Amino acid sequence: MKSAIIAKFGGADSIKMVEEPLPSIKGSQVLIKVGYAGVNPLDWKVRSGSMKMVTGKKLPQKPGYECSGLVSEIGPAVKDLIPGDRVIGYTGLKGGAYAEYVALPERDCARVPETIDLKVAAGVPICGLTAYQCLTQRGKIAKGDEILIVGAAGGVGSFATQIARILGARTTAVCSSANVQYVKDLGADAVIDYTTEDVYSCGLSFNLIFDAVNAHKWSEIKKLLKPNGIYVNTIPGPVEFIRQIFTGLLPGKKFKTFLMKSDRGQISWILEKMAAGEIRLNVDEVFPFQEVAEAISANEKMRTRGKIIVEVDPSIN
To answer: What H or E segment, with its residue span, contains residue 237?
Structure first.
């Protein structure tokens, strides 16, 4: 089968297409014939070598951390899924979603409702779970809360804006001029255009600030929090973990960082809301399988409205 690998750490030329044997499965694993794969910032961060502390230095590595497709085979301990099921899957940091087939534990897969296009579904796992967990588990969102979402037009921000609306929060979204109407359509109650407005001059305070693109420094952004407000970012590191511990020990404003965890129940909740029309995901660009490197570079520009998708096998849906 064809698969994309990171042959060296660096730029777009680090991504190579290779031939590999079909993955074997065992236990509670399922073999997925991949139709589509979602592109994420993790792809270019791992490709560049900036994630070596997490993924290691050994090469080759495999980009691609989420996909959609059809169950091809199941292991003897699989309890729910059957061959032919339409599914999405999360690979974890081992990657490998930019391939014709991928083997995953059943717990990291979820059945996709027939009404949802698999091309769209491929972009759900990472952005959907990140948004849901940052708002509910890290941010402790409650009905009536005032929420600020920075990077509201991106993949994570798009999900967060809609989930916050469903959970009854009042959302102020931060985005560029080109995306103001887009985030309003997602359900934002107010919008700050960062190209013409200064978020620090908005005159508002928030119960929760979710910085989906890690655009702000804690020393500055905490000024916009209510006395017991929470700030959540999505790039964990030594400084972030220390700050999280320190603010957690003291009364007042909290800094929290985030490590995503696979959760089949949460993914299923998001898919149910999508099937009901309460959440939608905009597919900004679609790249053919042989242009994985170009798709990752497009994501690296940080100008995506929703998600970029790689089309591995367009006959699958």
So the answer is: none
Say if CB 41 and CB 308 are below 8 A apart.
no
pLDDT recorded at residue 195 = 94
Question: Are 132 and 104 in contact, with CB atoms under 8 Å apart?
Answer: no
Q: Is the preceding peptide bond at 60 cis, omega within 30 degrees of 0?
A: yes
State the Cα angle at 251 between 245 and 257, rounded to 5°.
Answer: 35
pLDDT reported for residue 259: 87
Tokens found for residue 169:
């929060």
Ordered domains of the chain (ranges, CATH):
2-124+281-311 (3.90.180.10), 127-256 (3.40.50.720)
Q: How far apart are CA 92 and CA 241, in angstroms?
A: 21
User: Which residue stretches of 30-88 are H helix?
Assistant: 41-48, 52-55
Q: Contact 113/54 with Cβ under 8 angstroms?
A: no
How many angstroms separate the CA atoms of 104 and 216, rounded? 36
Q: Give the residue from 233, 260, 269 showing the smallest Cα distance to 133.
A: 260
Tell me, what's the pLDDT at 100?
98
Q: What is the pLDDT of residue 196?
A: 95
By DSSP bridging, strand 29-38 and strand 307-311 are: antiparallel
Q: In this structure, are residues 227 and 254 in contact, taking their beta carbons and an 8 Å threshold?
A: no
* Count of alpha carbons within 13 angstroms of residue 27, beta-carbon side: 6
Token pair 């890290």: residue:
138
Blockwise average pLDDT, block size 10, the chain, 317 residues: 98 97 96 98 94 90 98 97 98 96 97 97 97 96 97 96 98 96 97 95 95 92 96 87 89 92 95 97 97 97 93 94
Q: Is the pTM of this model over 0.85?
A: yes
